[in-house]
Amino acid sequence: MVAIGVKAGGEREGLGFDVEAQVAALLEEAEEDVLADMAFPPEHGRRIHSTNVLERLNRELARRFDVVGVFPDGAAALRLLGAVLEEQQEEWMASRKDFSSESMTRRTPAPGSFSEAATLKEGVHDF
């Protein structure tokens, strides 16, 4: 079993390395990706860890594709997909402010990390 934790000061702590060295090395390499959501404010947690939005989008896509039935070609299906995604994006932008510019500025990326480089600049993205 392997458990990797991060202390309050950002120091990494490994617990119980009773596994193959390869697995431990993979976890070490993937540490930043695995712990990426920790850079977000706690109130973002319920949205980050939930697949509800994605499941709802997939149901909407399936419903729209079922209405059409058979598409003349792949381009027609792609146009419908694009239209549905654009419509959903407009709805999300108008109604959801979970990832607003204000809340995104409260992110706490580690100095010099990829997360720090990817920190959104105010006004660039309006989630």
Account of the protein in words:
- This protein has a domain at 35-117.
- Mean pLDDT is 74; it is low at 115-127.
- It contains seven helices and two strands.
- The chain has helices at 21-29, 31-34, 45-48, 52-68, 74-95, 101-104, 114-117, and strands at 3-6, 12-15.
- By secondary structure, it is mainly alpha-helical.
- A hairpin with a 5-residue loop joins strand 1 (3-6) and strand 2.
- The chain has a two-stranded antiparallel ribbon with strand order 1-2.
- Helix 4 (52-68) crosses helix 5.
Helix proportion of residues, in percent?
A: 40-55%
Structural class: mainly alpha
Task: Trace the largest sheet across and list its strands.
Answer: 1-2
Give the N-terminus to C-terminus distance in angstroms: 37 Å
**Largest sheet properties:** 2 strands, antiparallel
Q: What count of helical segments does DSSP give? A: 7
Content of β-strand: 5-15%
In total, the number of strands is 2
- Indicate the low-confidence ranges by residue numbers: 115-127
H/E topology pattern? EEHHHHHHH
What is the radius of gyration computed over CA atoms, rounded to a whole number of angstroms?
20 Å
- On the 0 to 100 scale, the average pLDDT is 74
Spatial shape:
elongated
Function: Required for the transposition of the insertion element.
Organism: Hydrogenibacillus schlegelii (Bacillus schlegelii)
Keywords: DNA recombination, DNA-binding, Transposable element, Transposition
Pfam families: Transposase_mut
Question: Which helices and strands, and how do they pair?
Answer:
Elements: E1 3-6, E2 12-15, H1 21-29, H2 31-34, H3 45-48, H4 52-68, H5 74-95, H6 101-104, H7 114-117
Antiparallel strand pairs: 1-2
